Hints:
With 268 residues, this protein is mainly beta. The longest helix has 15 residues.
Amino acid sequence: MRFRPLLALVLAFCLTFAAAPTSVSAAFVKGPERGNARFGNVVNTGKAGECTTLPANATDSINADGNFKSLCLQPTEVFVKLQGSKRQKSDFVPAKIISPRFNTSIDEVYGDLSGGKFTEQGGLDFSLITVLAPNGEEFPFAFSVKDMVADAKKGKSLEPGAEFSGTTFTPSYRTGDFLDPKSRAKDTGVEYAQGLVALGGDDEDLAKENVKQDLSGKGQITLSIDNVDSDTNEFGGTFVAIQPSDNDLGSKEPVDVKITGILYGQKA
């Protein structure tokens, strides 16, 4: 009997939170306590990975000199180049993004824009993605704009029709500290599995599995400008990037991956 008032108090406390409207949490994150209007507008909407888009009538021009910020690249389609056969040559085929499904974008990238070229200097400049090819094979890769240097094909202005092409650095999908199922890695000093009978010899495939290598790669990217707002110094458009897939720390050959999508940025 003496515990009945306590139980009633606990039950009332639980019912209070269960019956509270969901708008309370939304009001909290959108209120002045957070001070981030963009976060408040996209929280719990599934749109956090989407880049900002400009209206189609934004056809101004901005001098491409200075710095850029808030560069966002949102993949919309991914293609992998599968090995061909005697009857069919190697070609890019569409693949389905399976991980992560709604957060594959690169965002808040900044850098130098002087000389009419994009030179990446930092930000959230890579994203780990896995796609499923039509043949059922999965291809992980690190979508990256690290060390991007993209020059204008002509002119030095951000305006509809302008294109900037260059190279990017593609980091390894896994770091050297990653342990495989047999606890082998690159930086831990464990190059082979204890008790592996067939260690050594001239077996090239076995050597690739035993000796882990933190291999990186190079990519190519083209930024196409479609819309520009000179009042806000914003620009938008599309991009096409081609880069290698994951090589599983040297144990398999990478394939070329083509990523296309939406582009957004702002001149600082």
